[in-house]
Amino acid sequence: MSPQKLISAHPIAPEVRQRIEHELDLIEHEHLVQILYACESGSRAWGFASPDSDYDVRFVYLRRPERYLTVRPERDVIERPVDAVLDISGWDLRKALDLGGDSNPTLLEWLDSPVVYRQQAERAAQLRELAKAYFARDRAYHHYLSMARKNDREHLHGETVRLKKYLYVLRPLLAARWVRQRDDAPPMVFADLAEAVLHELDVIDAINELLAVKMRAGEAERGPAWPALRAFIDVELDLATRMAPAKDERRPLAELNIFLADCVLSQLA
């Protein structure tokens, strides 16, 4: 059985999607921005949400032209109050492009999300192509390795552990394995990633069992440590550390500057 058999157990509820659309409309109206792209991030996009998982909505927005011409730049993040259901925040396009120029894996994941709430199709397609063009193996690799180490250190060493945290270590470890084997960004959906790079049958069985538990349990569900996953994480962390790639040469930002200028100035047409 592959991990993909257990994916997509928690689709976006219609009433939640409607509320998200309403919140995005409010953001555009209150902040005088255009939302170029909005998606689901986090466990619902990765494919292993719990029944009580919240909705992590992320977006990229464009401000009016004159607001890019201020002496002191405005704050480049918009955040809505977080509640038990929704966590909504977004980046100004200039911030997104700046991070994209540094091959920020979070932006790449947003743009690969299987759940897109809205997008300006042409701009979103251009942004995806630019993000892919600026992909850098070393930045992505060290991002995922650091994430795996941090989550493992903080959450998986104890007599009992939060079960969801295994996936928050396994996913970046498998993403790092993907980057070692390929020259592009790993897929956001955990099943696609695992199917492509994970071949250890005992680990696949353990992940299937873990996913089955997580998808019917709450976010805070705890349990004893899983020996098969603990052994895999220890070996893979050591391997990932020893095989870290050399630093890549950075790509000039000219294409990103051109795209930003085109997006801003096109509002004047």
Topology overview:
Blueprint: H1 14-31, E1 33-41, H2 43-46, E2 55-63, E3 77-79, E4 86-92, H3 93-101, H4 105-111, E5 116-119, H5 121-133, H6 137-155, E6 160-162, H7 164-181, H8 190-197, H9 201-214, E7 222-224, H10 227-242, H11 254-265
Give a structural overview.
The chain has two domains: 146 residues, Beta Polymerase, domain 2 (2-Layer Sandwich), CATH 3.30.460; 106 residues. The chain has eleven helices and seven strands. Helices cover 51% and strands 14% of the residues. It starts with 13 loop residues before the first helix and ends with a helix. Helix 5 packs antiparallel against helix 11, helix 6 packs antiparallel against helix 7 and helix 7 packs parallel to helix 10. A hairpin with a 6-residue loop joins strand 3 and strand 4. The chain has 269 residues and is α+β, with helices and mostly antiparallel strands. The chain has a five-stranded mixed sheet, sandwiched between helices. Strands 6-7 form a two-stranded antiparallel ribbon. The N terminus is likely disordered.
